[in-house]
C-alpha cells in the first residue's frame, strides 16, 4: 500500500465520519445560545444537557437522583486537569492561598505536573509517588504519603507514553480510607477501555474528545456532587459559575457521539487493536533482537506500544520514519520539541540506551492490518538504513 500511515493516535485521533456528521447537523440545527431564554436558546439548552447527561452516563457517573455527579465542559484535557487541581485547591495558580498537601505520581502528564509544580512554588507540599520498572504505581508508597492534611491525589489512569494502566480502583480505596479525594486523568483510557467513575470511587475525572475520535476543543471534568471547585475563569454564569463561557452545543454532541460509537464497538475495538498491537510488536522484535517493549509485563492500553530501539536515536528514528510515511512520536505531544529524555521513562528506572531509543506507536479505531504490516516493513527498512549509515 502507498501513502502515509498514522500511528500517533495517543496524540490525537482522526474524527469519525459519524461524529463529523453529527457536529455539522448540530451546527445548523441548534443556532441559539444555550444560555438564552427564548425558544431557540431553550432548544439548544436541551440538546446540550442531553449530551452532558449521556457523556456522564457513559463515563459511569451517577447522573440521576437528588445529588447527581456533575459534568463540566472544558476546552480539553489540559484545562480539565488544571481545573481539577487548581480549582479544587482554591487557587488559579497566580495567587497564594493557605498551603496544603497533594500527591501525584512521577509519570503524570505535563498538565498535571506543571500545576503541581506551581502549587509547590506557592508553598504547597507535593508528594511524588514512584512507579516500578514496568511503570506501575507503587501502592505501598501511596499509602505512606497519605496524611491527614492531604487534600488531593491526582493519578493518571493510563500512561500516554507507555500505555501502562494504573491501579486506580485500588488507589481510590486507599484514599477513601484516609478521607482523601482522588482525581484521575483518564484521557488515554476513555474510548479505549470501560471507565466507571462511580464504581472507582473517584472524586474527579478528566478526559478529552479528540483522544477517542471526537472533535478537538472539548473535554470534560466529571466531579462528585460534594466536591467543591473554585472557578479559574470569571465573567459568566454558565455551568454553575464553575466554568463560565458559552458552551458549544455542536462540540458537546460530537463528543457524545464519539463516546456512543466507542460504546457500541467497545469489545470489537479492544480486541482488534490488541491483536494489531501484538502483531506489530512480534514482527519488529523478530527482526530487531535488541529492541525492547517498555512496560510489556504490565497491563496496557490495547492500542499502545512503546518500543526501545536500542542502539538508535529516537529523534533521528522518528524523523526518518516520517520521511518514510510512518507518523509516530517520541512521547507526549504536549512535550514535543524537547530533546530532553522522557521524565516518565527516567522515573521507571530504565537504562539510558532504552530511553534514548524509545519510540511510541499508537493505534486507533481506524487502523487496519494492512497498515500495520506495511508500517512494520517501513520501520524495519528505516532501521536497516540507519544502521548502515552509522556503520559507514
| Secondary-structure element pattern, one letter each | EHHEHEHEHEHEEEHEEHEHHEH
Total number of beta strands: 12
Specify the CATH class of the largest domain: Alpha Beta
For the termini, the CA-CA separation is: 31 Å
CATH fold type of the largest domain = Aspartate Aminotransferase, domain 2
Instruction: Specify the structural class.
Output: alpha/beta
Summed over residues and divided by their number, the pLDDT gives a mean of: 94
Shape: globular
CATH superfamily of the largest domain: Type I PLP-dependent aspartate aminotransferase-like (Major domain)
The CATH architecture assignment of the largest domain turns out to be 3-Layer(aba) Sandwich
Describe this structure in words.
The chain is α/β, with parallel strands linked by helices and 392 residues long. It has helices at 17-29, 39-58, 77-88, 110-121, 139-145, 168-177, 249-287, 314-323, 343-347, 352-356, 369-391; strands spanning 5-6, 70-74, 101-105, 125-129, 150-156, 181-185, 204-208, 219-223, 292-293, 304-308, 326-327, 358-362. The protein folds into 2 domains: 5-12 and 266-391, Aspartate Aminotransferase, domain 1 (Alpha-Beta Complex), CATH 3.90.1150.10; 17-260, Type I PLP-dependent aspartate aminotransferase-like (Major domain) (Aspartate Aminotransferase, domain 2), CATH 3.40.640.10. Helix 3 (77-88) packs parallel to helix 4 (110-121). The longest helix has 39 residues, at 249-287. The two termini are 31 Å apart.
Amino acid at each position: 500500500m502507498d501513502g502515509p500511515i498514522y500511528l500517533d493516535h495517543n496524540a490525537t485521533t482522526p474524527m469519525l465520519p459519524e461524529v463529523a456528521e453529527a457536529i455539522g447537523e448540530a451546527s445548523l440545527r441548534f443556532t441559539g445560545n444555550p444560555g438564552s431564554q427564548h425558544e431557540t436558546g431553550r432548544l439548544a439548552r436541551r440538546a446540550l444537557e442531553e449530551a452532558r447527561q449521556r457523556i456522564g452516563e457513559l463515563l459511569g457517573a451517577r447522573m440521576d437522583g437528588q445529588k447527581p455527579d456533575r459534568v463540566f465542559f472544558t476546552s480539553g484535557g489540559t484545562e480539565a486537569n488544571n481545573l481539577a487541581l487548581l480549582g479544587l485547591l482554591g487557587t488559579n495558580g497566580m495567587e497564594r492561598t493557605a498551603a496544603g498537601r497533594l500527591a501525584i505520581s512521577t509519570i503524570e502528564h505535563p498538565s498535571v505536573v506543571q500545576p503541581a509544580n506551581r502549587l509547590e512554588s506557592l508553598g504547597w507540599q507535593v508528594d511524588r509517588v514512584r512507579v516500578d520498572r514496568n511503570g506501575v504505581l507503587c501502592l505501598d508508597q501511596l499509602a505512606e504519603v497519605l496524611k491527614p492534611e492531604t487534600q488531593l491525589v491526582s493519578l493518571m489512569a493510563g500512561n500516554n507514553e507507555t500505555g501502562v494502566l494504573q491501579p486506580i480502583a485500588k488507589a481510590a480505596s486507599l484514599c477513601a480510607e484516609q478521607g482523601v479525594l482522588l482525581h484521575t486523568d483518564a484521557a488515554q483510557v476513555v474510548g479505549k477501555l470501560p471507565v466507571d467513575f462511580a464504581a472507582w470511587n473517584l472524586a474527579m475525572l478528566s478526559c478529552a474528545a479528540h483522544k477517542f475520535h471526537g472533535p478537538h476543543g472539548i473535554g470534560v471534568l466529571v466531579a462528585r456532587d460534594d466536591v467543591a471547585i473554585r472557578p479559574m475563569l470569571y465573567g459568566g454564569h454558565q455551568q454553575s459559575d464553575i466554568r463560565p463561557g458559552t458552551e458549544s452545543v455542536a462540540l458537546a454532541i460530537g463528543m457524545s457521539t464519539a463516546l456512543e460509537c466507542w460504546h457500541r464497538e467497545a469489545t470489537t475495538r479492544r480486541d482488534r487493536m490488541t491483536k494489531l498491537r501484538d502483531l506489530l510488536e512480534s514482527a519488529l522484535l523478530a527482526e530487531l533482537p535488541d529492541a525492547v517493549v517498555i512496560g510489556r509485563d504490565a497491563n496496557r492500553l490495547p492500542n499502545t506500544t512503546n518500543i526501545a530501539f536500542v542502539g538508535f536515536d529516537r529523534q533521528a528514528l522518528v524523523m526518518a520514519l516520517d520521511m518514510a510515511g510512518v507518523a509516530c512520536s517520541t512521547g507526549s505531544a504536549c512535550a514535543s520539541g524537547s530533546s530532553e529524555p522522557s521524565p516518565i521513562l527516567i522515573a521507571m528506572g530504565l537504562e539510558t540506551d532504552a530511553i534514548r531509543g524509545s519510540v511510541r506507536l499508537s493505534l486507533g479505531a481506524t487502523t487496519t492490518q494492512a497498515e500495520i504490516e506495511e508500517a512494520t516493513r517501513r520501520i524495519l527498512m528505516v532501521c536497516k538504513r540507519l544502521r548502515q549509515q552509522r556503520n559507514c
